[in-house]
Amino acid sequence: MEVTPIELPPGDTDVFDLDQMDIILPMMKLEDGILAHKIGDRKKAFECFEKHAEINNKVAKYWLGYYYWEGYVVDKNLGKAVELFREAADKGQPDAQLRYAFALSDKNSPLKFNLEDFVKYLTMAANNGNSAAQFNLGDLYFNGKLGISKDEEKGLSYLKLAAIKGQPKARAMLDKLKINYFV
């Protein structure tokens, strides 16, 4: 089979300018961005999170929110951070659900405390397996904190889930109460 080369009209080859072409460059994997964060390369991590957040990756939005909250690489922007936490939280990202819940109770946050939303997002995070949320929600119910009706059974259920996952505060609390969390 003979291949016939395509002939371009004269002058058309002059219009090719790499600076004017949309070239799709490979994107760093999100896992590599998280690894960059862990080893302290925050600039590289931020760039990765930013690119992945642009394509609506909920984990990247959480991390990008974290960078805005802490002021890593960019100026601290709590408003932008809570916006990103909420977007990721509403898409089911457990760490973002926890961060958003606690942003509601942080005195430096631009959000006004709302107990109903606080419990809602803390519960979402706990039910999605976040052990810190499980401990905090368990403590909230077990001790009846923040005006929540005391519910020791519900509280113990969340505390045990957290303890089984190795959450140290949950284990310490249950050990102090002499409650076996493996039952």
Detailed description of the structure:
This protein is mostly helical and 183 residues long. 59% of the residues lie in helices and 0% in strands. It is built from 9 helices and no strands. Helix 1 packs antiparallel against helix 2 (42-54), helix 2 (42-54) packs across helix 3 (58-70) and helix 6 packs across helix 7. The protein is elongated, with a radius of gyration of 24 Å. The protein starts with 29 loop residues before the first helix and ends in a 7-residue tail after the last helix.
What's the layout of helices and strands?
Elements: H1 30-38, H2 42-54, H3 58-70, H4 78-90, H5 94-105, H6 115-127, H7 131-143, H8 152-164, H9 168-176
Helix pairs in contact: 1-2, 2-3, 3-4, 4-5, 5-6, 6-7, 7-8, 8-9
List keywords for this structure.
Serine Threonine Protein Phosphatase 5, Tetratricopeptide repeat; 2 domains; 183 residues; single chain; mainly alpha; elongated
Can you tell me the CATH architecture of the largest domain?
A: Alpha Horseshoe
Shape field: elongated
CATH domain class name of the largest domain: Mainly Alpha
How many strands, which pairing sense, and closed or not: the largest β-sheet?
Answer: none
Helix content: 55-70%
CATH superfamily of the largest domain, please? Tetratricopeptide repeat domain
Number of domain units = 2
- Give the termini separation: 73 Å
Mean pLDDT level: 91
- Reading the helices and strands in chain order gives HHHHHHHHH
Beta percentage is: under 5%
